[in-house]
Each structure stands twice: as C-alpha cells, then as structure tokens.
Amino acid sequence: TGRDDFEEDCAGRPEVTVIESPVGLTRQRNAALDRIVDRFDVIVFLDDDMQLERNYIASALRFLADQPAVVGFSGHLLRNGRITRSEARQVVDEYRPEDRDFRPAFRCRGKYWTLHGCNMVLRAAVLKYERFDENLPLYGFAEDYDLSLRIRGYGLVGRFRECVAAHLEPPSGRVSDKKLGYSTLANNWYFLRKRLTHCPTLLAGYVRFVLRLAVFEPLQNATFALLGHRNRAMRLWGNLAALRDILVGTCSPHRITELD
User: Fold this and answer.
1) How far is CA 137 from CA 186, 199, 225, in A?
2) What is the pTM of this model?
3) How far apart are CA 83 and CA 44, in angstroms?
4) What angle do CA 146, 147, 148 make, to 5 degrees?
5) 42-46 and 106-107: which strand pairing?
6) Terminus-to-terminus CA distance in the chain, angstroms?
7) pLDDT tens-digit profile of 107-136?
8) pLDDT score of 1 more than 50
9) CA-CA distance, 46 to 259, in Å (whole number)?
10) 168 φ, ψ (degrees, to nearest 5)
11) 117 contacts: CB under 8 Å, gap ≥ 6
C-alpha cells in the first residue's frame, strides 16, 4: 500500500502514531526511539515485509522477563527471501516445532550472536545509551551488525527459536546493486576505522576484511557477472569503487548517496 493508504488505515486508531523523519533507516529508527524509549521496557523493530507467528510478541516478552541477562535477540526465520505474503502466511501457520529438536531455544554463539535487522527485540534500557549509527545512510547496510557489537557489552545477544517468522525480502523496492556493492565494503571499512569488529583483535578484523571482502567478494561478483548475472556486475562496480576510495582515503558510507 502507498503512504496515503497507510495513513488512512491509521486514522482513528489512537494506539498508532505516525512519525516522520529525514530519509534513512537509522535516522528513522532513532526518531522513533526519541519518542518511545522512556515509555516502554521492550522495543521491537520489524521490517514491513515480515510475517510473524501469532505468538511472536508474547513469546518475546515472556523470554525477556525470564532471562534478565539477555539484552536483545532476533527470532527464528522459517524462510528468508523470495517468498510472497500468502506463502509466508502459510509457512508460518503450518509451522510445528520438532519434538526431537534438542538445540537450546536461545543461542548466542557462532553465527547466532548477531541481530537480524528485519526483526529485533531489544531492551529499551540499552537503547537509552546505544542508538543506530546515523553515519550509515539510506537502508543502513549492516546496521544490525554494528548495533549487535555495541550492545554486547550490556548483556547477551542472540537468536531465540520460539519467536517464529518469515521474511519476504522481495527484490523490488531495494537500493541499486551498485550501492549494495559499495556499502558492503565501505560500511565494513567504516566499522574497522571506529575499532569495531567481532574478530578477536582489530588486526584480525583487518585481515578478515582484506581476505573476505576486498578479495573474495569482488571475485565472487566477477564470476557471476561473467556468467551473465547483470546484478552482480553492478555489485562488482560498487566493490571496485569502494576499493578505489579506500586506497585514496575518501571512502565513506555516505558515498552511496552520490552513486546513480
């Protein structure tokens, strides 16, 4: 639905407040926090292409009430991308937990330590001190990684399997592949420059950046581009532009606002 339809849906519903802010995911979320962070104990961030299981919020609140050491988590995605709204509803409605699944309901190690920006449940007390980094413009690539690293100093961050959802992530309505390619390198370089990494040391973080992002990422995009994937060719263009800016000292997350 368009903005007019949305505002019409909200009309006459006093429990819904529409807040306007400058363009940019991180700015928009911070603008909302300015209005609500002192009024609630728990704040949930959801993308508009999320389909939640009906008990998602109730399960989240119970879990945080029972686990005071946990400061933030994301739920369990049954599907993540390339799925329609009707398919997502069906997947979520038909989900049944496996009786023989002996994994812990909450995991905060390995690949499960970071938040997933499409669905995040956070204690408001933490967000009084840590906000989203507004130096990440537009869609704020990797804002979830950045916030996860900063709030780990307050408590546990991870994934909670009993909060179930599906993420549509349609291809339309997203930023250009050039900007995605640029942000993939530029934003991670920016995190290192502000001494933020999940690696054991900052040096290890720089080594990871060179091997994983400066070398593997462009090579992978180049390979797919040669196979005829035009979107990967555009991502490669963004990768190379970011590498050039890093080498000459002009790399910044804000450069994507200047790219076509």
Assistant:
1) 12, 25, 27
2) 0.88
3) 23
4) 95
5) unpaired
6) 26
7) 998 888 999 999 999 999 999 999 999 999
8) no
9) 28
10) -70, -50
11) 45, 47, 140, 143, 144
